[in-house]
């Protein structure tokens, strides 16, 4: 990979974190609506609409790039089912838990706890793909878990909903950690990142639809969302931001491999706290920032290749 290509790939990973932090804050703002908050399962409906709208965005984007033949050829390849499997873990499972966690404990705590997913992804890679974890990685994993436990305790001591929100955030991290490993394996089977993301959003949307039809039997709050111009605009904007985030993320996974892509993406937890302060006037707690940074650093150390650390140390000297 040339220097410019590597630089752009790193920017993809970094900006995937920036946009994901912003999309989380916008989702939290959407969930604050009084009517929507009265529906217990409306977060799942919003997650479904978010991925469905994102699929539409990607469809028009790839249509503009005239990639019809590539899409058709890949759909004939049975390996695209790998991306479908990744979509189920990251979408109906991971994203639903993410939005449910935001509902119960807010975007700041949710972003910090779910930032544990690179460490979980590294563990999954270790057990399934036989990727080795260095001693530095083990230290990072211990740091991330310790900070998550501290954060979870501080979140859950006041109300039972804190425990539920903490559990949802952890399950979200588990889903996202699984997705990145599986999607990376799928993209190794000659599936370009942009098309892989299109397949991901289509599969995720279908997964949500089945869950809603089977278990919820209705689409509560949808009429209210699309009858309110402000809510509709907010949903469309949130989906666009989330689309940019995931598009950059999948490109980073394809070019940098999952470990480094995750290490750059986890900065979203810090960005979420900053955007929540700027957009929603949520106070920035020093404790939250320290714990959030600890989880991010721990996950980064778990994910990063120790060889790169040695190169960086040598370069600094």
Automatic annotation (TrEMBL):
InterPro entries recorded: EamA_dom (IPR000620), EmrE-like (IPR037185)
SUPFAM superfamilies membership: Multidrug resistance efflux transporter EmrE (SSF103481)
UniProt membrane topology term: Multi-pass membrane protein
Family note: Belongs to the EamA transporter family.
Residues of the EamA domain: 9-151, 164-302
Recorded superkingdom: Bacteria
GO cellular component annotations of the record: membrane
UniProtKB keywords: Cell membrane, Membrane, Transmembrane, Transmembrane helix
UniProt main location, coarse: membrane
Name the record gives this protein: WblN protein
Localization of this protein: Cell membrane
Pfam families: EamA
Transmembrane segments: 12-31, 37-60, 80-100, 106-129, 136-154, 160-185, 206-226, 232-250, 262-280, 286-307
């Amino acid at each position: 990979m040339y220097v410019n290509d590597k630089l752009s790939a790193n920017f993809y990973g970094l900006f995937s974190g920036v946009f994901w932090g912003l999309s989380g804050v916008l989702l939290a703002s959407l969930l604050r609506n009084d009517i929507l908050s009265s529906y217990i399962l409306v977060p799942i409906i919003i997650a479904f609409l978010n991925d469905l709208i994102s699929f539409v965005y990607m469809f028009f984007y790839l249509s503009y790039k005239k990639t019809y033949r590539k899409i058709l050829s890949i759909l004939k390849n049975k390996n695209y089912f790998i991306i479908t499997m990744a979509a189920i873990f990251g979408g109906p499972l991971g994203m639903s838990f993410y939005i449910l966690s935001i509902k119960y404990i807010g975007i700041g705590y949710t972003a910090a706890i779910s930032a544990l997913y690179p460490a979980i992804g590294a563990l999954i890679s270790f057990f399934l793909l036989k990727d080795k974890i260095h001693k530095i990685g083990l230290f990072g994993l211990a740091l991330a878990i310790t900070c998550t436990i501290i954060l979870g305790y501080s979140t859950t001591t006041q109300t039972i909903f804190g425990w539920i929100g903490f559990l949802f955030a952890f399950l979200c991290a588990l889903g996202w950690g699984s997705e990145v490993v599986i999607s990376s394996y799928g993209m190794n089977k000659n599936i370009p990142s942009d098309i892989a993301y299109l397949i991901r959003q289509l599969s995720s949307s279908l997964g949500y639809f089945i869950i809603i039809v089977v278990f919820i039997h209705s689409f509560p709050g949808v009429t209210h969302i699309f009858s309110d111009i402000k809510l509709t605009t907010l949903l469309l904007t949130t989906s666009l931001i989330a689309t940019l985030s995931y598009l950059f993320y999948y490109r980073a996974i394809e070019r940098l491999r999952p470990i480094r892509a995750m290490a750059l993406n986890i900065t979203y937890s810090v960005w979420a706290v900053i955007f929540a302060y700027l957009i929603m006037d949520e106070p920035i707690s020093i404790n939250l920032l320290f714990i959030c940074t600890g989880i991010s650093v721990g996950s980064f150390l778990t994910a990063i290749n120790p060889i790169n650390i040695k190169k960086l140390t040598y370069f600094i000297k």
